[in-house]
Amino acid sequence: MSIEPLVSVVIPSYNHKEFILKAIESVLNQTYKNVEIVVVDDGSTDGSVEMLEEESGRLGFKFIAQSNRGVSRTLNRAIRELSTGEYICFLASDDYFAPTKVEKQLEALRKSDLTGFCYTQSVEFDSNTGAEIRTFPKKTYSGNVLDSLIIRQPYAGGTIMVKRAVYDSVGGFDESLSIEDWDFSIRCAAVTEFVCVHEPLFYYRSHSTNSMKIMGRRKIFLAKAMILSKNYMLVSPSRWIFALLVNFVHDHAYVFTRHLRLKKI
Hints:
With 265 residues, the chain is α/β, with parallel strands linked by helices. It has helices at residues 20-28, 48-59, 71-82, 101-109, 146-149, 164-170, 180-189, 211-215, 217-230, 237-264; strands spanning 7-13, 35-42, 62-66, 87-90, 96-97, 115-126, 132-136, 161-163, 193-206.
């Protein structure tokens, strides 16, 4: 009889009182049951803390509240100080999992000792209407993915399941960077193989307070440039230059398009 490994699901919470219980319940409803839930509130001001303190006892999840430190520091603290699982998942407090997410990812990861990182497809949906916007990514890759991943991260950070040993080997999340999941993924790709579960097992809520929408395209590119600069030694110089150019064009194309539209008016 095989021992079922413990999976830790880490949920950083910030001003999502309206959504976070659905996120927690989606983990409680997993078909794979050997799961611990760790919630760290990062300075919410919307009543989340009081609600989570009350619900933690009833629903049985670990919970602490702290002053605002940012996503990366919150994730690292939750993983290092509170979680004990052999495998780790991340879940934003406004998103949620499909019921079979943990089970199917764990099955995929346990097929090979060379694989330490798993992601899935996602469904992006409109928070106001519930309407599905898209399923992504359409094109996925597995195995040695570093050369592809240095160009862009096609999957949502909330789809990730990673072995704790891999998290430890890369030093966790870089607390000085934005878009922390891409930087983390790049460093993981340098030390382990990836596998994708080709099913939408994660639900990404689209609304006005999504962090990427708040950042804006220019800040997003600058954040990406910092990540590429940090990790330039992991790939060939030509691949690194290509990655920088692709991201520059992607994050600035809308500026040129808008300029052309204004000229036509």
